[in-house]
What we know:
Distance between the termini: 52 Å
Shape: extended
Order of helices and strands: EHEHHHHEHEE
Largest sheet: 3 strands, antiparallel
Number of helices: 6
Helix content: 40-55%
Strand content: 5-15%
Structural class: mainly alpha
Amino acid sequence: MYVTTLPVPGMHFRCSPKIHGNLSAMFDRAMTMMFGLGLSITGSHHLCGDYLFSGHTVILTITYLFIREYSPRGWFILHWCTWLVSCIGIFCILLAHDHYTIDVVVAYFITTRLFWIYHTLANHEALKKPSPAHHLSRTWWFPMFRVAEGNVGGVLPREYAWPLPWPKRFHDTRFHYMGVCKQV
Length: 184
């Protein structure tokens, strides 16, 4: 984390003095930040630096990617609205000087690549097996990936069910990938 530390991107951040050796004050500051959710609006943001990765951009990007991947293809209005909200959110992050542009670009790049790599591996049965030609099978996380995705036999079907017991009219309906409902 030390390597990716940058100066504060905006003058609106309040900096607290560094605490050296005072474990009680460090713990108190960490708890204030945790319970304030790290938000500057709650007064709990007391850092004088930024990390080279925008968590805000990650959330906006991953939300769009999941909605695009797992919602019915026919719901293109939802896809476009989610894309637009994500783009506006990222623009507002830059406009408010909450992150540098490089923070946002790196976060977008890493998030999209991880999402696409994971889903490519999960959707192809041959890539779930280790082999000499499969370089990702040599990574430290590949055994965990095999455990998590081992019982999934390919691409998940785009079929959705209403998760709540009420209202009854939605309970027996399944939503399919084209956005068409059918009664079960």
